[in-house]
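hi got a favour to ask and not much time before my train. below you get a single protein, a line of residues and a line of whole numbers that encode the local backbone shape. could you go over both lines and see whether the tokens make sense for that sequence. a few lines back from you is plenty, here it is:
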Amino acid sequence: MQQGFVKTSDGAYIYYEVEGEGRPIVFVHGWSASGKFYARNVEGLKDRYKVVTVDLRGHGRSSKGTDSYTIDRLAQDVHEVVEALGLEGVFLLGWSMGGPTVLSYWKQFGKERGHLAALGLIDMTPYPFHPGDWNSHGLKNFNAEGFNAFATGFTYNHEAFVNGFVKKMFVDGVLPAELNWIVPECMKLLPHIGVALYGDYCYSDYTDVLPTITVPVLVTPCDSGIFPKSVAQGEWIAAQCPNGKNVPFYKGGHMLFWVEAEKFNAAVAEFFDAAK
């Protein structure tokens, strides 16, 4: 394994890991998570591809400064990691809040020749506040008061909030015993950072980016307590992309890539191989 930190242009330190050789796959995690969440995907794909995971700023092992917690800055951080590692022809996948991060990456850097081969949007919405029927986020329809309650709970009842949030990721609302590391990992996102970042996520609209994407896009949704109607949401998202493909999951919940790792890894490999 290759691992280390990339110092960004504004002085943050982004932790990354690289395993395997071949065409590069880069995984971007969701809010309060880390690259560790992709362990089963790294293991399943590293024999054929170079698999890269990052811990976004403020998360996991990356630095936790006091500013620049926006989706656009996260995308810039990922881009600087990709550049530092000299990656070309990347399959860039983002889960949950990582989905808008991938869309911001496309908006900012997608025109770089040969840089991106494909995008992946894993159980995500491009705009949590969107009022459209397709949107399955709990704060849809510009629910700023709901966000305020979310921020208060995360700040003043941190551990209880994280426990409840994590349970929503699974179809039956139960955290599997094997994943007892998830709550401590999520709590590495400090309250003031988490609120700032989730706020930018909720208020930022990337729906207009979807029709501009010229590379193939793999969409992988699954219904859970996070997105109760995610499969329908995924159908809408894939339809907005000129080369979008929706591959729904039904057992894995929000962590479909972990719970249904074999199916997810096969879908990623098949899609990336076809995107040559």
